[in-house]
Amino acid sequence: MMINFYKKNKLSPIINVSGFMTRIGASITNKKSIEAANSIFPYFVNIDELQSIASKRISYHLNSEASVITASAAGALTESVAAMMTGNDIKKIFKLPDTKGMRNGVLIQKGHLINYGAEVGQGIRLSGAKIISCGLKNSCSDNILEEALIKNKQKLACAMYVVSHHCSDYGAVSLMKFIQLCKKYKVQTIIDAASEEYMEDFFQIDPDVCIFSAHKFMGSLTAGIVAGKKKYIRNIYLQNLGIGRGMKVGKEGIYASIAAVENWYKKNWNKEFNNQNKILKYWINFLNKKNCQGITYEIIADPTGNKINRLRIIIDKKIAKFSPQSLAYFLEKNNPSIYVRDDLIHIGHFELDSCNLKLNQEKVVMLEMNKIINKLKQKKLKHNITQSEYKKRTMQTWFLWPDNISGN
Question: Using an 8 Å Cβ cutoff, are 70 and 213 in contact?
């Protein structure tokens, strides 16, 4: 059935060991969300009423005062910043992205200005806000953050904290300390946690607004969830009268998100962990038997606390005689295409994530990877792709579209 779908639509078959990545569709939509979307499609509904229902039902699970569904987590980021500048002033809402006369500064640690497929900074600036960054290239101290809060207090609309694997190696101020310092100086807070699944935990430290993805871990239709204090969530909802109009979510996205959250909190975690461990054990046994020189591996926990263990593949290119970039690139160009988690590939390793694998795909991953390793060792494939080449090849795909894309 899976192969038939790809053939019928002239698409490249994909096996996902990268996690919940937007460029390959983010997630497998859960059945409850599909049923919810299908059930609402034939009807007109009052969107205000539906969003109010979503607020009550989702906030119940998150232990927040209110919540609202947006078109995406990226859209939620821009709308949240906008709301912190405008409040409930309709004239200001209509005026954006012109922020003249408003407090329009957004304080953020330098290491949190990441690219997650697009720039966090650009998402902030789309609202008309101005970025005020603090900290050093690799770290930010409590003192530096506090000094920035004091120095810029009269300019600040809010401060933002990003929780993501993209910045997990940055020496950031702890989230708890960030919230404490912002409260001390009465600066509103936004937490961007789009890639995190432990949503209810954030509200134990009392942020003003927190942003999540409805479609990544929870497997809804594409949508964002913003939760937090009611007055801020209401102001975010008001952005639909202004710049938020271009980021509006449909009835199916709202209703599917409700179903996704409620389904998420009924999940059988023992079953999930057992499946993860079974796959990790299979991969390790396979690699142990092959005993490939220059390749080591280890199980690592998710760096931001999601309930995931992954297998890290570490390649010493001098011993292995090929680079991790070459292996990752040719896995992606394989048939089936195998996408690995490559955000740290520049330091010599990538990871395999088992969360989205279908039955027996873990075996296909190892078999295909072994074939490609052998070809790289025999120099039948380009074995020495560098990091700059790897990034360039990935970027070229954007400029080739809509022509010369594999599968067409």
Answer: no
